[in-house]
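ESCALATION

Customer reports they have been waiting on this structure for their group meeting. Please prioritize. Original submission:
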Amino acid sequence: MKRFLYGYTVVIILAICLAGCVNTGPVYEVSGVVTYKNHDLGIADVTIYYEGEKTGTATTRHDGSYTLRNLRGPKVIRAKKAEWSFETTHPVTTSSENIDFVGTYDHNSTAYLLGTVNTTHNFPNSALDPKSNEENTRPKRPFTISSLQQASSEDNEDEVVIVFHSSTTSSQQHQVLASLGMKILDQAQVINAYLVRLPHQTAEHMITGFSTGIRYVEKNQVMQPFALKSPNDPLYGSQWHLPLIRLPQAWAQTTGEKSVRIAVLDTGVDLKHPDLLANLDTDYAYNFVDDNDDVQDLSGHGTHVAGILGAVSNNSQGIAGVMWDVSILPIKVMNENGGTSWDVTQGILYAAGLLNQPGEEPYNPSPAAIINLSLGGRKTQHMQDAVNSATAAGVVLVSAAGNDSSPEVLYPAAFSDVIAVGAVDYNYPNKPNLAPYSNYGTDIDLVAPGGDLGVDSDRDGDKDGILSTRPDGQYAFMQGTSMAAPQVSGIIGLMLASNIPFYQVREILQQTSMPLGEDGDLYYGHGLINAYWAINQVDKVRVLVGTRVGDEIDAVAETQLDLDCSEYHLSAIPPGNHQVFAWIDVRNNNIIEPGDYFAELGMLEFQANEVYSVSGVIVEID
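Update from on-call: job pushed to the front of the queue and completed.
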């Protein structure tokens, strides 16, 4: 009887297997694109269904493409999206196929808009570049964000504004100006005003008493946009790298905070440099090379790095730092001949407040928020452990990639928890190139200006370096990824001063950097750091339909897309005459202003149940 039961059981199991494990054919996939009727661009967010013995869905990407995988047996494929109708369903059998759908917008009361938006960046020139000193025609806009030079009252000292009484005719006004030998640069007829250039050796007071219809005469004063802030440091004009990474725009919002503490692990710092002293923490500075508190810099490297990061700024002396207000903690881990991984490890732990207990020496009661490491070498596990511990404590670590022209990033920059910085050179008016010495590779997060002291046919080679502080109160140009890293550390300091959490810093830096190559580029990482975008956490491009009223937009429809996405789709546009706008509202204040990226199209007539296509490029408002 047992044998019979066992045999019966085996038979049942085999029967179940045969019923549930039927081979319904080979695995295949279906892919395709969903496009608009009479347009080449794809429709995003369309649901693609497959029906058969089993069912499932996929959603079209921004370009309208889709893929259905792991299909078996006959299926029926169809597309669906609200307010759209598509061609009939498509049957498939047991082999991979390409199935495209064409959609028709069938909303009877509104229109639909699609297209692409691409962003382009300009790259400011240096005040020391001969190109910037060439005589140019008068700009049509009142100020230029991209100008590196600080505005000077001498720039337009020979320009005056002459305003006539309303009783004078236009011809009379021109006769007066001609008799005075004035060159008319511009005019505003509604207020009877002329911008003129004075003849040689003619002063403003020489025409104030002229009685033939002149109401008043005054100088054409220099103005600064509120979205731009430049320091009065006399050497600022030589710091071409600061406008390149949009710091004048960022400074208009924040110049930092003394509460932001940044450790500089380097060759020490000149504690007596007049352009550094006010921003240095001399109480807890420490020397791990000699195990004492003497951090005097005999090399000059650390002093140069500290000045880039946080020279005392807007003090009518020397240079400007990335951060005007900051607390720099000098930690000496190298001498003029270099250092060891152990001293760097000790320095990292000390900066993070993790080295010793209270009462023991050395002790750092105020951990740094950021650690700058303009140094590098081979990988060691003890340094990796220190990096891990500092990161776990909430410290942001930034390191130079190295100066070997190698595809291998040095350590600690190559550690995954460290922000690795490569260097670019000065290449105005084109986008910067990777500096010839800079290391590169998949570990690079982003790049910053590192300069290039090589001789250039158009410029004095020295001036292509990065200008910063040197021991004994001096200043000098240097080059290297060591010069690029403190710029990133300083911008992170500005981000923390703007109340951005430390754990969001890396992602924001990556998404707001200005691309210099293709996605995932080995040379530039995510691109050139952008201080203004970073402190404002820019992440969207707005596409709007409506009407512009001054510096605001009265929108009737709007969509937003990520910075790395170019295709947009906008539905429910009411019929009528509207403009189309693309806008990166950097400060997210709904006001079009210098520093924003913007483009607009004249009036279009939108009709119900129609699809329209508009593509273009947005550029920085200067």
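Sent to customer with the following note: The radius of gyration is 32 Å.
Escalation resolved.
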